[in-house]
Write a structure and sequence with these properties.
Layout (H helix, E strand, L loop, with lengths): L11 H11 L4 E7 L8 H8 L2 H5 L2 E8 L2 H10 L4 E5 H9 L5 E7 L5 E5 L15 E4 L5 H12 L8 E4 L3 H9 L5 E5 L2 H4 L5 E5 H4 L6 E5 L1 H6 L1 H20 L1 H11 L4 H13 L10 H13 L20 H6 L3
Parallel strand pairs: 1-2, 1-3, 6-7, 6-8
Antiparallel strand pairs: 3-10, 4-10, 5-8, 5-9
Helix pairs in contact: 2-11, 2-12, 4-5, 11-12, 12-13
Length: 328
């Protein structure tokens, strides 16, 4: 789940007061990974609905949706306003490939939306019961596989003792589960809530694993240099959306219901779950949470070495208080 625009030394309210004299609010579109499918993007929906981006100095009129990973990064780099929220793995991959990418804020920092499910009548009662069985993940080196391997490690289970089957997607994995092809399938909210009457939860990732940075806001270094005020405004607007979500979960659930076409009950449960886990960061960087993600990416073979965050992160576009609040 990002913000950008306004001077780092100003608060959001002061920035909103000063901005009209400096520049006119204009319409922009940005990209957010898994928009409409996961809860990463809820703060953007809230900020757009409540006019919080406009108050920060930018009018975000639409979100470009991507399946995640490289597709999202390419969409961002090709857009008029090259800012977007992507998975950490996608940002790191883009940097390794020599793309002009810089990380400017943190989006989400929880894995509470992820879980493992099985059929109600299954003999699988805990993660330990998956030993010797097959489990559906979305794809090799995916976040779903990474979190599963981290959960196995947390419980001291040799990953070689559980067969992982790439299903191609969460829904596909659940279909395999129903057909008896696997004993468990990875799941993610809100899909797991929509289908909760069909399955039984084996474990929730958030109950086993510590918070880690799961998505970040990126842009190009060229755009950051030429349009710093735009980035500060986006970051400030998104931050306001995060704070509004935490302050009024019920109101955010109504926006989620409309934006993502969910039932009131599903939207409320999804938002309440993520508010409880503090899924959305206001933007500051936490080294420990960033490094936990790197540890997970090493586990699936996505990366081999430690990450020098100083070469990838630019905190200059964060509000002043978030610069000092972070631990990077």
């Amino acid at each position: 789940m990002t913000n950008l625009f306004k001077r780092a030394c100003l608060t959001l309210g002061a920035a909103a007061m000063l901005l009209p004299a400096a520049r006119a609010v204009h319409a922009e579109e940005i990209s957010v990974t898994q928009w409409g499918n996961s809860l990463y993007g809820l703060p953007y929906a809230v900020a757009m609905d409540k006019g919080l981006f406009k108050k920060a100095g930018i009018d975000i009129t639409g979100i470009l949706s991507s399946g995640g990973g490289g597709t999202t990064v390419r969409n961002i780099l090709a857009s008029k306003t090259p800012y977007g929220e992507v998975a950490v793995s996608a940002a790191l991959a883009a940097a390794r490939q020599g793309m002009d990418v810089v990380i400017v804020n943190v989006g989400t920092r929880s894995v509470a939306e992820a879980s493992m499910v099985t059929m109600p009548n299954s003999d699988v009662k805990s993660i330990n019961d998956l030993v010797g069985k097959k489990v559906a993940i979305t794809s090799p080196k995916s976040v779903s596989e990474m979190l599963f391997l981290m959960a196995l490690r947390d419980k001291g289970i040799d990953q070689a003792k559980v067969t992982r089957v790439a299903s191609g997607g969460y829904v596909n994995g659940m279909t395999m589960l129903e057909q008896g092809a696997v004993a468990g399938a990875v799941a993610i909210e809100p899909l797991s809530i929509v289908r909760k009457d069909k399955y039984r939860v084996v474990y929730r990732a958030g109950d086993l694993l510590h918070p880690m940075t799961t998505s970040v806001g990126i842009t190009t270094r060229e755009f950051a240099k030429s349009h710093p005020e735009v980035l500060r405004a986006i970051i400030a607007g998104r931050r306001a959306g995060v704070e509004a979500t935490y302050a009024d979960p019920a109101g955010a659930a109504k926006i989620l219901e409309t934006s993502f076409k969910l039932t009131p009950a599903v939207a409320k449960e999804a938002v309440d779950n993520m508010v409880r886990s503090r899924m959305w960061s206001t933007g500051e960087f936490d080294r420990a949470e960033l490094d936990r993600m790197v540890d997970g990416l090493k586990l699936v073979g996505e990366i081999k070495d430690n990450v020098d965050w100083s070469k990838l992160v630019d905190k200059d576009f964060l509000p002043a208080d978030l610069k000092t609040k972070g631990t990077l």
